[in-house]
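A further point concerns the way the authors explain their paired sequence and structure data. An entry of this sort, consisting of the sequence and the corresponding backbone structure tokens, reads as follows:
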Amino acid sequence: MIRAFSLAVSALLIAGCMTQPPAPTVDRSTSARPVAPVAGGPGYYTVKKGDTLYRIALEHGQDYKDVVTWNNIANANSIKEGQVLRVAPPVAAVGEAVVAQPVVTVPAVESRPLDGPGSVASAPAAVSASGVKREPRGGKEPYSDEAYTRLSRAGETAPKPPIVAVDPKTEVKPEAKPEPKTEVKPEAKPEPEPAAATGPDDVAWQWPSSGKVILPFTEMGNKGVDFGGKPGDPVLAAADGKVVYVGTGIRGFGQLLIVKHNATFLSAYAHNRKMLVSEGQQVTRGQKIAEMGNTDSDIVKLHFEIRKQGKPIDPLVYLPKR
């Protein structure tokens, strides 16, 4: 009876061990997880009523195609009010694998005493207090009158060769020739040189139009400089760069053209009559890129802007003096 009871208890214990739930596991993966956009955070913008993707890109100094890519937007005209957009380039993901480089072990350098066997270098010569070297000696021999006489003669200084005086030659000076007279011509008035680029993000600017400035830059009003002119007057690229926008997608600018010069600067050319370049095209400073017109404007003019990291700045600060 007791044996049967023991067998029953053992069977119950074994069954309990077999039905025990598995131990919990913890995911210790270091792979980076996507971070949700933060409204109002740095590098993000919340779409407001009346915004267009093209204006948002212009206000932040970006190519609108980059904004489309960063936000996986299928249609650039389908953004919605309240939508959070990334307007700055994504940074490297956190938690990237770090490649460990092996540590190179330098073999130990064997040290030997200088006076030990096998030593090549000799000990430094002993110097007396008077500054005369006494050692090492070339050899030793027993004292004798002959040896003393021989060593004394060997130490005598060899006679110096006689110095022969040489008569100095008379220096012959070339005959001076009269300088030719230079005809003085009136100086021609130079063209204004483009502003020199002094840093990696600086730009060598030039005037985009030869027309007269009819409206200057103001902080709270005109965000650029307006040039007067006639329909068809040339509009020139103010600096080297890439055309990132051509179209009418920004209200109030008419036919608009935007050139991105580097990660810091871009320039805008508005109210054109005709565009002469296309998006993605590289342009050079002074190249004719459009013709002046009056699209979305009461008069014929060129509205020109320079933006630094998306912020409009006075172009006259950067353009060379006329």
Notes: Confidence is low (pLDDT under 50) at residues 25-34, 92-100, 118-123.
